[in-house]
Amino acid sequence: MAELSLAQIVISRQGKDAGLIYVVSGFEQDGRVALIRPPKHNVNSPKKKNAKHLQPTSKCAEELLEHIKAGQNIDAGFFYRSVGINGE
Q: N or C: the chain end with fewer CB closer than 10 Å?
């Protein structure tokens, strides 16, 4: 599996959220990855998912990186524009 990086765009492959796009916001001690997709999962309340259930992409949401590092929540509209999604 490819190494994941902060602000990398990933796609969920397993679970009820299969096919949804997320952005990596951190890494947990137990090997899980913290993911954001506002408004439900934001920097202060990320979704935690096993890395093997994620499909990494070659894209990185550079615009979101500073917000993630600063621990600031991200507006849903800004998130969708940054990752190239038109709405939810």
A: N
